[in-house]
Amino acid sequence: MTLIRVDSAARRLRFDGMEMDCEIGRGGVCPAVDKREGDGCTPLGRWPLRAVLLRPGRADPSGVKLPWRWVREGDGWSDDAADPAYNRPVRLPRPHSAESLWRSDDAYDVVVVLGHNDAPPVPGAGSAIFFHLYEGRPTAGCIAVARADMLRLLPLLHPGDAMEIA
């Protein structure tokens, strides 16, 4: 296992001899046990890299070693604690709240799904904690890097790797 290390205080990410700027949640960081849906907090801890979501025409899967799939219009991620599919991918529209993975900005052109609160999900303890592209502002609790940095990192990531947020 190789770790992507995030220094949340310095807003720096380190991996395999590379170092780059990164962004965290608008609510700063918090212990994972204190993470709550909608608080904008990035959970501290070590999170496995589960899978990659790619937007067709905006990202190339060549060299991606993690499990990956294309994002389609209507793909979402449940963020409603009352939803039986909480913190899971879903199809939109649906009767429960869910974040769209097909965004008008570029943030979700490349998404690495982090294994936070997913084994099994605890309703209300935080959903959709991703590693994605930086769009000029703090995230809703995710880690984000510039597109060029993500594209350098992506082919180096393997199943079993994790992100450690400190």
TrEMBL record:
Active site annotation, chain numbering: H132, C142
Keyword terms of this UniProt record: Cell shape, Cell wall biogenesis/degradation, Peptidoglycan synthesis
Record's keyword annotation contains Ribosomal protein: no
GO BP annotation list: cell wall organization; peptidoglycan biosynthetic process; regulation of cell shape
Cell cycle among keywords: no
Protein name (Swiss-Prot/TrEMBL): ErfK/YbiS/YcfS/YnhG family protein
Residues in L,D-TPase catalytic domain copies: 2-166
The protein's annotated pathway: Cell wall biogenesis; peptidoglycan biosynthesis
GO MF annotation: an example: transferase activity
